[in-house]
Structure formats: structure tokens, C-alpha cells
């Protein structure tokens, strides 16, 4: 590190970055992981922050480096509505579609009727999904905070509680994973394989 003129950037959050996932007297936790940088990174990013979060799927805490709080202007493309595959796994989604589809329409048995029903479905699903995603984010943040607190207090005696929270967080993250897999596939189908 000294030879390369790299320095520990420090961090905020959980004191230890690794745990051996054992119980009792065999329990060990250490700070093994670090974010490193040279003097140039300090001069380029004066408001840089390093934080560690709760362990979710590994025995190491994730380390996040936030370089600044400014977002570059990015023009948003007009969004196209697509049914998210993850919605089918959420209780109530099928009822929502049925309710929107079976509602009365002024234009009975015409293409306009189908279009009206599709627009109703879209409107209901978009609003419903925003609420579901907000609840999901809050629940994940709350569970990660609980997990972080348990991991900080853990001296080998909280293994079962930590495992229960791991499972709960993973269940919530699976629906997000399905959403991003679907989006990645759509992008790949649109843009093709750039490696050839």
C-alpha cells in the first residue's frame, strides 16, 4: 500500500467487515475489507464518503464509495409501459387486472373498448406498483437496519435471528432481481449482443 501510495479511505457504518458465521466461542468478526485511494482521489472528490452496510448474502459487508452527491443531467427517454414479471408473484395483482378489465366501458365490443381497458389496466398497475415498490424499499431498509444493528451487537449469540432476517431480506430482493433481469433482457433484445 505504501509503495503504491494508497491510503485507507476509512468508513462509516458497521465496525467489522467480515464474520465467520459461527456461534458461541467460535464466533469471530474482523475488519478485513477496506477502500483504498491515492492523493488524487482526495483532491478530485472532496465530498467522498465510504460506508459499509449489513451482510446479506456473503460473510463480508458490502462497501459503498459515494464520490459526490451531484447528479449529472440525464435526459430521460419516454417510458414504455410493460407488464413486470415480478407483479405476477405479488398477492392482489391478478385481482387488480381483473377489476380493471371487467369494468364497464362506453364503447362495448369495439377496439376502443379494448384500448380503454388496456389503459385502465396500465393506470391501475402503474399506481399500484409505485406503492408496492415504495413499501418494498422501506421494508428492505428497515430490515437492513435491523440486520446491521444485530450484526454490530452479535457476539456469537444472535445467529438464528440474523439468519431469519437474511431470509426476509432475500425474499424482498428476489422480486427486484426478477424486475432487473426482465429489463436487462429487454435491453439485450433491443440492442443485441455488442461483443461480436
TrEMBL record:
Source superkingdom: Eukaryota
InterPro entries: Endo/exonu/phosph_ase_sf (IPR036691)
Protein name as it appears in the record: Uncharacterized protein LOC118348646
Amino acid at each position: 500500500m505504501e509503495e503504491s501510495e494508497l491510503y485507507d479511505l476509512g468508513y462509516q457504518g458497521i465496525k467489522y467487515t467480515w464474520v465467520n458465521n459461527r456461534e458461541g466461542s467460535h464466533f469471530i468478526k474482523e475488519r478485513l475489507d477496506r477502500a483504498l485511494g491515492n492523493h488524487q482521489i482526495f483532491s478530485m472528490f472532496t465530498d467522498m464518503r465510504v460506508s459499509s452496510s449489513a451482510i446479506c448474502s456473503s460473510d463480508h459487508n458490502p462497501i459503498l464509495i459515494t464520490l459526490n452527491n451531484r447528479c449529472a443531467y440525464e435526459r430521460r427517454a419516454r417510458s414504455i409501459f410493460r407488464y413486470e414479471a415480478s407483479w405476477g408473484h405479488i398477492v392482489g395483482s391478478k385481482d387488480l387486472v381483473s377489476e380493471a378489465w371487467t369494468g364497464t366501458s362506453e364503447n362495448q365490443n369495439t377496439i376502443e373498448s379494448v384500448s380503454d381497458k388496456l389503459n385502465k389496466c396500465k393506470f391501475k398497475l402503474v399506481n399500484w406498483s409505485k406503492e408496492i415498490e415504495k413499501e418494498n424499499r422501506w421494508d428492505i431498509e428497515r430490515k437492513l437496519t435491523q440486520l446491521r444493528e444485530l450484526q454490530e451487537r452479535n457476539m456469537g449469540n444472535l445467529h438464528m435471528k440474523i439468519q431469519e432476517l437474511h431470509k426476509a431480506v432475500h425474499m424482498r430482493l428476489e422480486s427486484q432481481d426478477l424486475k432487473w433481469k426482465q429489463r436487462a433482457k429487454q435491453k439485450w433484445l433491443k440492442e443485441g449482443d455488442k461483443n461480436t
